[in-house]
């Protein structure tokens, strides 16, 4: 039996539960004590590192069975998320009026990117195909990104 697919799905689900619990019990009460701009910044920093998706190029080279088109969808979406999150942090830091619309744009882009990547993963039969760093990113970092949106 192939345990890769249930292991990946299980890791993602457990990570969602763990990160959601941490957010509810510890992070949300702490963020409520801060002003809006100061509360958004830690959540945005989580998204700055989405450029880790660039490792998908080496994953593909090492056998991850993703098409070139699927690979570019992942990379472009996540690098865009990196740029948006960093731009939003700068805008918040300098009290620019554009900061809140940028934050909402990041939320919309992240939702679109996540749905697109799930759809692409299903289309290309990638569920359970990840290994190494790709598996860790999908099992731990992606759920953290999702929880940070809430």
Secondary-structure map with pairings?
Blueprint: H1 4-32, H2 36-48, H3 56-61, H4 68-93, H5 99-123, H6 132-149
Helix pairs in contact: 1-6, 2-4, 2-6, 4-5
Nutshell version of this structure?
The chain has 150 residues and is mainly α.
Describe the protein in words:
The protein has 150 residues and is mostly helical. It has one domain (7-149). It has six helices and no strands. The chain has helices at residues 4-32, 36-48, 56-61, 68-93, 99-123, 132-149. α1 packs parallel to α6 (132-149), α2 (36-48) packs antiparallel against α4 and α2 packs antiparallel against α6. It is globular, with a radius of gyration of 16 Å. The N and C termini lie far apart (36 Å).
What would the average pLDDT be, to the nearest integer?
95
* Sheet having the most strands: none
SS strand fraction:
under 5%
Distance between the first and last residues' Cα: 36 Å
Please report the total strand number as a whole number: 0
What would you call the quaternary organization?
A: single chain
Q: Helix coverage percent of residues?
A: over 70%
> Which of globular, elongated, flat, extended, rod-shaped describes the shape?
globular
Number of domains: 1
Written as H for each helix and E for each strand, in order along the chain, the element string is HHHHHH
Number of H/I helices: 6
SS-derived structural category: mainly alpha
Question: What would you report as the Rg, rounded to the nearest angstrom?
Answer: 16 Å
Q: Which spans have pLDDT < 50 for at least 5 consecutive residues?
A: none
């Amino acid at each position: 039996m192939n345990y890769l697919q249930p292991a990946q799905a299980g890791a993602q689900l457990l990570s969602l539960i763990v990160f959601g619990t941490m957010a509810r019990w510890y992070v949300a009460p702490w963020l409520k004590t801060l002003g809006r701009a100061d509360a958004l910044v830690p959540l945005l920093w989580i998204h700055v590192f989405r450029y880790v998706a660039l490792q998908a190029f080496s994953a593909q080279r090492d056998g991850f069975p993703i098409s070139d088109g699927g690979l570019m969808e992942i990379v472009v979406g996540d690098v865009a998320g990196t740029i948006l999150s960093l731009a939003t942090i700068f805008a918040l830091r300098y009290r620019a009026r554009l900061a809140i619309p940028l934050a909402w744009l990041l939320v919309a882009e992240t939702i679109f990117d996540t749905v697109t990547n799930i759809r692409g993963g299903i289309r290309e039969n990638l569920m359970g195909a990840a290994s190494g760093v790709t598996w860790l990113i999908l099992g731990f970092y992606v759920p953290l990104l999702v929880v940070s949106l809430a």
